[in-house]
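Q: Got a minute? One more chain.
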Amino acid sequence: MDTWYILAAIGIVAFIIEIFTTGFIAGSVGIGFFFAAAGNYFGLAVEWQILLFATGLTLTYFLIRPLINKYGYGKEAVRTNRDALIGRTGKVTEEINTEKNTGRVAIDGDNWKAVARQHDSIPAGTTVKVVDIDSIILFVEPLK
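A: Always. Here it is, folded:
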């Protein structure tokens, strides 16, 4: 079996690894192996094959990888946990009153302690929007 087959197979394995990882690092290594396989196919010396491998890896890592990171991945990350509540709407289940330190809001079946952001009180049954969160306390304002 020719050596260039082996180098190309290692490049393919690197691309398979890239499917399960992120960052296009294994993909850069795979392209480096393809460059080295091409050098071996054309009968270049081992030193030239190593240089081609390094050139292919370096070029793709510094030229193609930034483009993939910029345009290839989703622009907006999925908001989870704490951040997922901000912007959501819920119903006031217990009157929100800053003087009495009372207030609860139901969002998706969960009942949260709530504080009015710019109002003294918000009556029960009002639909509110979460504008901020501190620990387990939601800061809300009524929807207009």
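A: The beta strands are 89-97, 102-107, 110-116, 121-122, 127-134, 137-142.
Q: Perfect, thanks.
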